[in-house]
Amino acid sequence: MIPLFVGYALVVWVAAARHRRRVGGFLAVLMGLAGLVGLNYLHGLLSDWSGGTIFLPVLRSIMYPYTALVVVIGFYIACLPRTSLVGCAHCGYSLHGLSPRYGIFFCPECGGGTPVQQAYRRSGADRPDLRGTDRRLSAHHAVGAARNQDQQRQPTDEPPSDRAQRPG
């Protein structure tokens, strides 16, 4: 019985992933929801048909969270972007470590071109990736440290003292 539950969820999620960000992905999740709602309805009819001899409240307490799980994860998968930000747009090959030519990464696997995407930084510094240092931010911290040393009347070649300075 458990492989049926896992298999049903996987079928819905694979269909949502295969057609993500398209109508087909969302339709796959809605069809999965319709199947589970129909199964819950049949369980209600089964209780009426059996005259209450089959104990269904336990089954319902399992089916409602399972239905929510399948639908929520299915919609999440259907909303995922189709293109990878780290790999080739055509074949998915990792372009990490390659240098761009004319603003385009050329994939060694398929030969396709992927434009360079600049990493967003709050400081406004443009960098080709997130591993590099932010020169504008580090310069700002250096100026702040020097200003802090001047306010504590410390020489610039010595670090500030750990004890608090008395106003005076």
Question: Can you describe what's shown?
Answer:
With 168 residues, this protein is mostly helical. It has a domain at 2-79. 50% of the residues lie in helices and 4% in strands. The chain contains four helices and two strands. The protein has helices spanning 2-18, 23-49, 57-79, 135-151, and strands spanning 104-106, 113-115. The chain has a two-stranded antiparallel sheet. The radius of gyration is 29 Å and the shape is rod-shaped. It starts with a helix and ends in a 17-residue tail after the last helix. The model has no long low-confidence stretch (mean pLDDT 77).
What would you call the quaternary organization?
single chain
Series of H and E elements:
HHHEEH
Q: Measured on Cα atoms, how large is the radius of gyration?
A: 29 Å
Strand order of the largest sheet: 1-2
Which band does the percent of strand residues land in? under 5%
- Find the count of extended strands (DSSP E, 2+ residues): 2
Mean pLDDT: 77
Shape label = rod-shaped
Flag low-confidence runs.
none
N-end to C-end Cα span: 79 Å
By helix and strand content, what is the structural category? mainly alpha
Q: Total helix count?
A: 4
Q: Approximately how much helix is present in the residues?
A: 40-55%
Question: How are the SSEs placed, and which strands pair?
Answer:
Layout: H1 2-18, H2 23-49, H3 57-79, E1 104-106, E2 113-115, H4 135-151
Antiparallel strand pairs: 1-2
Helix pairs in contact: 1-2, 1-3, 2-3
Keyword list:
168 residues, mainly alpha, two-stranded antiparallel sheet, 2 strands, 50% helix
